[in-house]
Design a protein that fits this description.
By secondary structure, the chain is α+β, with helices and mostly antiparallel strands. It contains 13 helices and 13 strands.
Length: about 500
């Protein structure tokens, strides 16, 4: 007789047969063979039956189109956080844009409310456009001439020099006489003197003059005698515009949508080393002065320059007008704006810099930035010279100029007298009140206002003299000119820019 033990539920579960999920019974199908490749397209042939070649522009002639920085509304990629040993809290809402294909990105002090780079079309970066400034509030003046034919003849007469060249004659025939609006019958009673008088009368009634103000300039002329006071001569009829009106008119123009209004910094990140460095190319990249203010900054960047202008074909009468352009428009946008009116920087040649800095032309100290004498110019570039430029920086001698002018206008002394020369000659100063110092104060950095003129002072100055010296060295080594010919041959091997002829 056997006694049965109680059944273990766990063991019975392990001993139970395992149920396996089997897939439904599907008949085995062999994989289908791949489809046959498509037959090659027939080769393209020319009209003569020969194979047609595919031409491709060589790599050296393929231009990479310019690209603006990425717009400020794009979210930048997250950067890894560095391990900080010490935390310094600056409450600033800095904003960085995404790096573009050239490795350029912008950094703002805050997220700007408007970024013109978001609206820049690709053709705006490589197509030249002329956008004249138009004031929508002023109507266009009516032509002072009786008809279009007389207006064309009058315009042709007053363009270019008095001696009309072959291109001017071609312009007369193709652009004037063959113009569809030109009519010979309209010139039956043409008179050049009468038409010039009509044009002068129309200029006096032009609505554009309503934006100008008229002033009279008083010139104080010394008598040369201490017993005879100086006399003031008035020069009437000076037309000018207020600078604020010009700024308002510029920001009301349609081109304002391409203005940079918020300052930023431009950086470049090397694709090889990953190193970041600051890039200076636009005036809008200058930071604002008040970094503690949290309000959004809107800057009107005004750029001034001057150049000598002859008033007539004969004589030496000249003017040095001051021109103004707005730096808010990017230099990479090929727009030309006809803003020319009368401070951060001013570009001028050396004669104009002499006038703006109120110094003597080629005096004992010819530099408008420092007081290094002409006898030490040969030390240019040395360490001692660089130190002297800092320690002997030029400053406007307000007191000495006032004393010299008192000697001229009150005491009747001459400009070249010993009393005046003793005060002003050592620093190459002149007894002229500087307009910038008079309006902006004696602390205005007059020398810092004058920037280097790259074309006149470097390309046509230092580099041209150096290149001439190198050619002379080549002639000294090989008087037959073989080395100069070799230099010309190597220059000819330099490829041109695109399809142009400039190397």
């Amino acid at each position: 007789m056997y006694a049965s033990l109680p059944e273990d539920p766990i063991q019975s579960t392990l001993d139970a047969p395992m149920e396996v999920d089997e897939p439904p019974s599907v008949p085995f199908q062999s994989p289908s063979p791949p489809p046959p490749p498509a037959p090659p397209s027939p080769p393209q042939v020319t009209a003569t039956g020969r194979p047609q070649w595919r031409y491709r522009l060589p790599g050296r002639y393929q231009d990479i189109l310019p690209e603006p920085p990425v717009a400020a509304d794009a979210e930048p990629e997250p950067r890894p956080l560095p391990t900080l040993q010490r935390v310094v809290l600056f409450v600033r809402n800095r904003f960085q844009t995404v790096t573009n294909s050239f490795g350029l990105w912008c950094e703002y002090l805050y997220c700007p409310s408007f970024d013109p780079d978001a609206f820049v079309a690709p053709e705006d970066l490589y197509r030249n456009r002329h956008t004249p400034f138009t004031d929508s509030t002023s109507p266009l003046p009516e032509s002072p001439h009786a008809n279009e034919s007389i207006a064309m003849i009058h315009e042709w007469q007053n363009t270019g020099s008095s001696n009309k060249s072959d291109p001017k004659m071609n312009h007369l025939v193709h652009d004037v006489l063959l113009h569809p609006k030109f009519c010979l019958e309209d010139l039956a009673k043409f008179n050049a003197q009468r038409e010039n008088q009509h044009a002068d009368d129309a200029d006096k009634k032009s609505p554009h003059l309503d934006m100008f103000l008229e002033a009279s300039i008083g010139i104080d002329v010394p008598s040369g005698d201490k017993d005879v006071p100086s006399r003031i001569f008035d020069v009437p009829g000076l037309l000018y515009q207020r600078l604020t009106n010009v700024v308002i008119a510029a920001f009301n123009d349609s081109l304002t949508t391409k203005f940079h209004l918020s300052p930023y910094k431009l950086f470049h990140e090397s694709p090889i080393t990953g190193k970041q460095e600051r890039v200076f190319s636009e005036i809008a990249e200058l930071p604002p002065d008040d970094l503690g203010c949290k309000c959004e900054k809107v800057i009107a960047a005004l750029m001034f320059w001057s150049n000598s202008t002859h008033l007539a074909n004969f004589g030496t009468a000249k003017l040095w007008p001051i021109y103004l352009l707005f730096g808010n428009l990017s230099t990479y946008l090929p727009y030309l704006i006809s803003f020319k009116i009368k401070f951060r920087n001013s570009i001028a040649n050396y004669p104009e810099k002499v006038l703006l800095a109120t110094i003597r032309d080629k005096g004992l100290c010819p530099c408008p930035w420092c007081l290094i004498p002409k006898s030490s110019v040969d030390r240019m570039g040395l360490v001692y010279d660089i130190q002297q430029r800092i320690t002997q920086a030029r400053k406007y001698v307000t007191i000495w100029v006032a004393v010299a002018r008192n000697s001229i206008y009150k005491q009747g002394l001459g400009i070249g007298s010993a009393a005046v020369e003793c005060l002003l000659k050592p620093t190459s100063s002149v007894p002229t009140v500087n307009a910038f110092i008079d309006r902006l104060g004696s602390n205005f950095p007059l020398s810092d206002m004058l920037v280097v003129d790259l074309m006149h002072e470097f390309e046509l100055g230092i580099w041209k003299a150096l290149f001439i010296h190198l050619i002379r060295v080549l002639y000294a080594v090989a008087p037959d000119g073989s080395l100069v010919n070799e230099l010309d041959r190597r220059y000819c091997q330099i490829p041109t820019f695109g399809l142009s002829t400039i190397h």
